[in-house]
Amino acid sequence: MRLQVEKPEADEQAREGSGWEVLAYSRPHWREKVNGDLCYTKELGTQVLVVVADVLGHGEGAHRGAVVLAQAMQRATGVLQQTYSVLEEAASQTRGCALFLALLDRKAIEYILVGNIRGWVLTRKGTEVLVGQPGIVGKRMLNPAIRRLELSEPALLLACTDGIKRSFSPVGLPWLWEGAGEEAARRVVERYGIAEDDAGVLVGRRYV
Q1: What is the spatial distance between Cα 161 and Cα 178, in angstroms, rounded to a whole number?
Q2: 130-176, pLDDT tens digit by residue?
Q3: Distant-in-sequence, close-in-space partners of 179: CB < 8 Å, separation ≥ 6
Q4: Which of 177, 49, 30 is nearest to 105 (CA)?
Q5: Average pLDDT over residues 93-110
Q6: Angle made by CA atoms 18, 21, 22, in degrees to the nearest 5
Q7: How far apart are CA 159 and CA 100, in angstroms?
């Protein structure tokens, strides 16, 4: 599954508006044809809304859940709490999911992270591990913590589902900064993906 995108502007205009380019790659469990890992981005003028969701299980059932979440994203806005509520309602109609939801702009990343999705923000100065909270979105009402990370230089955002081995870390991998974001995401999946699970990786690059 490639990144699902809503872009009212051309790619170059979108990058100039938000300062970010976001790409992703995912693939299903080796025995399945479709997967329940969703990577989605929505351009909102000077901001970009991104989602990485991992619907529980795999196969057709998980995939149907990912489709429900993607459809719900059409109602999403630039307010994280509102968008989380939209996705929580949608997830309640599915098996539930782990979720990374973020709003990116030229100055900061504002995000919610629930469940076993992992995320990092890398700059030339160091690496910030994104902080999450336990839970399954759509299965029990949660009070999502909204966190904010200020940025002042080029940065790399990376988020992955639990189909990527726990041993994976983006620290010390210079090739993540090189070439296209989709190629970097694919390389992580191919090198560190678990064959017996869906695997998805999202890569965002801040250029300003």
Answers
A1: 22
A2: 999 999 999 988 999 999 999 989 999 999 999 999 999 999 999 99
A3: none
A4: 49
A5: 96
A6: 115
A7: 8
Query: Which DSSP string corresponds to 129-185?
Result: EPP-B---BTTS---PPPEEEE--S-EEEEEE-TTB-TT---TT-GGGGSS-HHHHH
Nearest Cα neighbor of 152 from 188, 112, 131, 125 is 125
Helices assigned H by DSSP within the chain: 11-18, 60-72, 80-91, 181-192
Helices 60-72, 80-91: crossing angle, 10 deg rounding: 150
- The H helix count followed by the E strand count for the chain is 4, 11
CA dihedral for 152, 148, 206, 188, sign (positive or negative): positive
pLDDT tens digit sequence for 24-36: 999 999 999 999 9
The CA distance from 32 to 7, in Å, is: 30
Average pLDDT of the residues of the chain: 91
Mean pLDDT of 1-12: 45
What is the band of 179 on the pLDDT scale with cuts at 50, 70, 90?
confident
CA atoms within 13 A on the CB side of 49: 20
Name the residue with tokens 């299965």: 139
Residue 4: predicted pLDDT:
58
Count of C-beta atoms within a 10 Å radius of residue 114: 25
Q: Which of 103, 99, 92 is nearest to 115 (CA)?
A: 99
